[in-house]
Amino acid sequence: MKKIISLISIIAIMLSMSITALAGSIPEDLLMDQSQIFFAEVVYYHPNKEKPDIEFSPVKKIKGDVKLGTKQIAYNFNTVGDFDIKEGNVYLFTYFDENNPTDIFEVTSYDTSTLKLKNVEGDMWKRFEQYLNEGRYLAAEHDRIDRLNNELVVENGETITLSELLGGYDDSESDVAFYYPDGIDTKVNQVERKKFFKVADDIICTEIKPTEHHNPGLDFWIVTETDKIGAAVSISYDGKVTESHPAQSFVGQPKYKISSADLGKLQQFMTDKTEKLPPLESPYARYIVYGVLLGVVIIGGIGMIVGYLIKKKKK
Q1: pLDDT of 99 over the 70 cut
Q2: Are 134 and 168 found together in one domain?
Q3: Does residue 224 sit in the same domain as residue 187?
Q4: Count of structural domains within the chain
Q5: Confidence band for 286, pLDDT divided at 50, 70 and 90
Q6: Fewest beta carbons within 10 Å, which of 70, 127, 149, 284?
Q7: 282 pLDDT more than 50
Q8: In CATH, what number is assigned to the domain containing residue 77?
Q9: Which phi-psi region, left, alpha or beta, contains residue 139 (left: φ > 0; alpha: ψ -120 to 50)?
Q10: Are 163 and 185 part of one and the same domain?
Q11: According to the model, what pLDDT value does residue 284 have?
């Protein structure tokens, strides 16, 4: 009997150690294909319900199959660090699978190369912050997209530059238009024609097998004429290219793919508008306010002392 109890104890200890090891590997686990890392705005937060829940809308993707602009609800979630979630604020979210909680972080910046996690301690979270700053998650996402798209490439299929697909550069004075969804609206960013085609000349579109098109709401459109209907393509955020037009109610199947590196070259033309996020509180703002108040008190105190000494001297 004692041997059985001892065996059970050993198994329990080993399971405990394995669970602890798994928990400590979160930064590394988030490099896997199925994981998601993104910024999201909190739509509502109900912490006091019998089953607390949080609704959020992703606004900027770092990694994973994240549906931007959609509303999602999480019942299994966890705030990492000591802070209160506020509706309307944007936080950093991580998701691995339904068996693990959705972790929510308060951060100092939306720039992953410089952001710091607020109110957290420990080596595990230092590694997570380091991986974000080093761009390891972005690199993993680029690799994921390219691997998935490369599986669809047609053997001996057609290749064409994005410039050729759009008819090539001509002497038109019209800018190239980037259309993209913004909530229920569609917004446009106009790009200098020569500047755009200089980039498009070096982007290779490779023919792929027929595949299910992604939600058109996650796409952006490039139209070669801003003052009339011209050549146009739709490009999804995972690099699939479809000859189409934003005025169409239905977007057909994508015919080509581009690399994630080339996708980044195109997204630079719309960064200033598509990634406009609510401002974060500066980590130094509070100290600046305190410093100003302290300065006022000190100056006021010095003034009172000087005034007292002058008055005393006159007497």
Answers
A1: yes
A2: no
A3: yes
A4: 2
A5: very low
A6: 284
A7: no
A8: 2.40.50
A9: alpha
A10: yes
A11: 44
81/247 Cα distance (integer angstroms): 46
196, 226 contact by CB (below 8 A): no
pLDDT score for 159: 97
pTM: 0.72
* DSSP states along 148-203: HHHTTBPTT--EEEHHHHTT---S--PPEEEEEEETTEEEEEEE-HHHHHHHHTTP
Cα separations in angstroms, 64 against 80, 173, 200? 20, 39, 26
| Strand 77-80 relative to strand 102-105, pairing | parallel
Decide if 216 is inside a domain.
yes
Q: Which domain holds residue 236?
A: 152-274
Query: Which residues neighbour 74 within 8 Å (Cβ) at sequence distance 6 or greater?
Result: 53, 54, 56, 102
CA 271 to chain centre: 12
Is 284 a member of any domain? no
User: Does the structure show a pLDDT above 80 at 64?
Assistant: yes
In a domain, 200, yes or no: yes
Q: How many residues does the chain have?
A: 315
Q: Taking phi first (over 0 means left), then psi (-120 to 50 degrees means alpha), and beta for anything else, what does residue 76 get?
A: beta
Q: Are residues 116 and 186 in the same domain?
A: no
What confidence score (pLDDT) does residue 257 get? 96
pLDDT in tens, 20-46: 335 589 999 999 999 999 999 999 999
**Residues sharing a CB contact under 8 Å with residue 69, sequence separation 6 or more, in sequence order:** 57, 58, 59, 181, 183, 217, 218
Residue 302 lies in a domain: no
